[in-house]
Design brief:
This protein is of the alpha/beta class. Helices cover 31% and strands 25% of the residues. It folds into three domains: 10-115 and 249-332 and 339-369, FAD/NAD(P)-binding domain, CATH 3.50.50; 125-243, FAD/NAD(P)-binding domain (3-Layer(bba) Sandwich), CATH 3.50.50; 400-718, Alpha-Beta Complex (Phosphoribosyl-aminoimidazole Synthetase, Chain A, domain 2).
């Protein structure tokens, strides 16, 4: 008997990808709670681990070793991830506000958004300074700076332990590169004023060894390019100035209505805020029952308590109390591969201490780098002999990777009777049909996608952009759309939340294209699926597949590779930055590209059958051949790497059968990669090609000239 998936009934929203939330997700993935739907909101696809930041700055670790890949982690957990920064939390309405989308409703929420070292009150810091936190922004800026050339002066504002580690690491890195000029640590009070005398003595010795100048008891007046102006009139040369002066809460937290302490969310022993449904952990929280300094070790120790208490509120179990340790091991990097340890007033330093710290940090990160593989469901003992072959060895893709193959589709459509109405114009091979309505030319098309991402808002944007592609490919102006939605099993409350997000996102995309949603249909199934039927109006004759001529230049408006990237994402193999970039490109509308290419001889959108399949369709309809310059075909970030590793979409083999003589290579195989919301492929007159490319680039499209059409039997050749 088929057992349908259990419905989700409660929304748990984690705001911020800090250490505690990352550990909660990991624990949840190991032991999911049926009925609980998890959402993670974070500005980017990765979260840097603070413990390894000094080692990265010093050059001991590559950039990728610093990051927890939240996209991979969310896929492992089965949580949706929203790549945006929260800007408000309404505890009364239980909503999280994120720019550019409908509010996200929650039953339970937790904040782990860290702190910032921004200095809005310091003149020139916003333009010429780099806050040490958020860590991701700092790491990106430092990575770019240290790979520059010529002598470099550096300065850090803030002489606490964090500032000390930072200036030592920066100095070490630039010294190894032969670029160090002047290094300065600046504090409005005594440098390391909060540290013990022994720690202060050891770190000041390290400053001396690295030739770092100290400016104490002097405030900064303003920053200008290459110069830090001090309040006493002195000027400090600095080409890279970072701020590490204290911990500042994010401004939007002040508007949450939660009880705060100096801007930080005050929590009790259960890590709950003044609103029991909202937790806070890490640096953004203030332990009202037992105040502690801002340190990552507390966030790590809070994770098991937060994990237990979130589940307990959903299951009705008792809550647990968090008991912070009175003292903790402090391991302070000294720039080179040496570290200073401090606990219970005892200090120990040297290379051995750095190796100890390195092993602790590597062990912490290893649990995120080596996520357990999701095992496929076991088949029943008794089954048809060809069932394993039909299932294949990989999970079924979403998006256009879940389409039926070109061969099966053509065979089925070949049995259809020809149109019987005089107001329907057959367009063999085109995805849209041409209708004559009261003397007006109207095109109509439909498309439907199995979800490839767990975020309904993002999936709705992709599906709407994808459905509009057929209208744009014919040079038509979108008119109206109807929605066809299949929702997974959800409680009534979660149904409403999900529908609200989908329709808000879809309406935004379709209205931006000049059309309106005028109706639709919903049903319940095993998984999320979103589709639209779209009509468009043609002021002139529609652009079809059949108008291309030999000599035409082929222009592609978007890179390819979404199929292999999303297949890899489902398998937990794609880097989060690749997935984030692919999602942005899939959401890019083609309205302006369609307008620019309105004089094309033939045009199609590149979707499920891949670039090769859609190009061959154009060649067959126009009676020409194509020569494709493989090196000129634009690829999505990471697509070539994933293809070279052997990853393929589940529709790849069907697409590959379209052109069996083309051969195979990692790059060539991407021509058969099914695209979701792909770009427009246009055949244009050669004397217009360069001007059209310039217009497309000016409009923000990564368009490329990928080949030419030639006389001959319809086929594709690679040059």
């Amino acid at each position: 008997m088929h057992t349908p998936p259990l419905p989700a009934t409660k929304d748990v929203v984690l705001i911020g990808g800090g250490h505690a939330h990352a550990l909660v997700l990991l624990k949840w993935g190991m032991r999911p709670l049926p009925g609980g739907r998890l959402t993670l909101i974070n500005p980017g696809p990765t979260a840097p681990y603070s413990g390894m930041l000094p080692g990265f700055v010093a050059g001991h670790y590559p950039r990728e070793d610093l990051d927890i890949d939240l996209v991979k982690l969310a896929r492992f957990v089965g949580a949706r991830i929203i790549l945006a920064a929260a800007e408000a939390l309404d505890a009364q309405e239980q909503l999280v506000h994120v720019p550019g989308r409908a509010p996200i409703a929650y039953d339970l929420a937790s904040l782990d958004v860290g702190i910032t070292s921004e200095m809005p009150g310091l003149a020139g810091f916003g333009e010429h300074g780099v806050p040490a936190k958020p860590l991701g922004v700092f790491a990106q800026s430092w990575d770019a700076f240290r790979h520059g050339s010529g002598p470099a002066n550096i300065a850090v504002i803030g002489g606490g332990i964090a500032g000390a580690e930072l200036i030592l690491a920066m100095t070490h890195a630039l010294s190894r590169l032969g670029r160090l000029g002047q290094a300065t640590l600046i504090d409005s009070g005594p440098v390391l004023g909060q540290a013990s005398p022994e720690v202060r003595k050891r770190l000041k010795r390290a400053f001396s060894e690295h030739r770092i100048s100290l400016v104490e008891n002097t405030s900064v007046a303003r920053l200008e390019p290459g110069v830090v102006h001090l309040a006493n009139g002195r000027m400090v040369l600095s080409d890279f100035t970072s701020g590490a002066a204290g911990a500042h809460p994010h401004d939007w937290i002040a508007g949450t209505g939660l009880k705060l302490h100096q801007g930080f969310v005050e929590v009790d022993e259960t890590l709950q805020s003044s609103c029991p449904g909202v937790f806070a952990v890490g640096d953004c929280a203030h332990l009202g029952f037992s105040p502690r300094p801002k340190a990552g070790v507390f966030a790590v120790r809070q994770a098991p308590i937060l994990y237990h208490n979130l589940r307990a509120l959903l299951t009705g179990d008792p809550l647990r109390r968090y008991k912070p340790q009175k003292d903790y091991l402090k391991l302070i990097s000294l720039g080179s591969k040496e570290a200073l340890g401090d606990r219970f007033g005892q200090q120990f330093a040297g290379a051995l201490v750095w190796r100890w710290k390195d092993r602790i940090d590597q062990n912490f990160m290893e649990q995120f780098h080596q996520l357990p593989k999701m095992e496929p469901a076991e088949l029943p003992v008794e089954h048809t002999h060809d069932l394993p072959a039909a299932l294949g060895t990989k999970p079924m893709c979403g998006g256009c990777g879940a389409k039926a193959g070109r061969g099966a589709l053509r065979a089925a459509l070949a049995r259809l009777a020809p149109p019987q109405r005089s107001d329907v114009t057959p367009l063999p091979g085109d995805d849209a049909a041409l209708l004559q309505t009261g003397g007006v030319r109207q095109v109509i098309s439909t498309d439907h996608l199995r979800a490839s991402v767990l975020d309904p808002d993002m999936m709705a944007r992709i599906a709407a952009t994808h459905a509009l592609g057929d209208i744009w490919a014919m040079g038509a102006a979108p008119q109206v759309a109807t929605a066809n939605l299949i929702l997974p099993r959800l409680s009534p409350a979660l149904q409403q939340r999900t529908l609200t997000e989908i329709m808000a996102a879809a309406s935004e995309v379709i209205q931006a294209a000049g059309a309106d949603i005028v109706g639709g249909h919903t049903s319940i199934g095993d998984e999320l699926s979103i589709g639209f039927t779209v009509t468009g109006l043609c002021e002139t004759a529609p652009i079809t597949l059949a108008g291309a001529v030999a000599g035409d230049v082929l222009i592609l408006t978007k890179p390819i590779g979404s199929g292999v990237i999303m297949a890899a994402e489902m398998a937990g193999e794609a880097r989060g930055v690749w997935v984030a970039a692919a999602l942005r490109q899939m959401c890019q509308p083609q309205a302006e590209a369609s307008r620019i290419l309105s004089k094309a001889h033939a045009m199609t959108d590149v979707t499920g059958f891949g670039l090769a399949g859609h190009l061959l369709g154009l060649c067959e309809a126009s009676g020409v051949a194509a020569q494709v310059d493989l090196a000129a075909v634009p690829l999505m970030q990471g697509a070539a790497d994933l293809s070279a590793s052997g990853l393929r979409s589940s529709l790849f083999e069907e697409n590959r059968a379209i052109c069996p003589t083309l051969g195979s290579s990692a790059t060539l195989d991407l021509l058969f990669d099914p695209q979701t919301a792909g770009g427009l492929l246009a055949a244009v007159s050669p004397d217009m090609a360069e001007d059209l490319l310039l217009q497309l680039h000016a409009a923000g499209y990564p368009a490329a000239r990928i080949g030419v059409l030639t006389a001959g039997t319809p086929e594709i050749k690679i040059t």
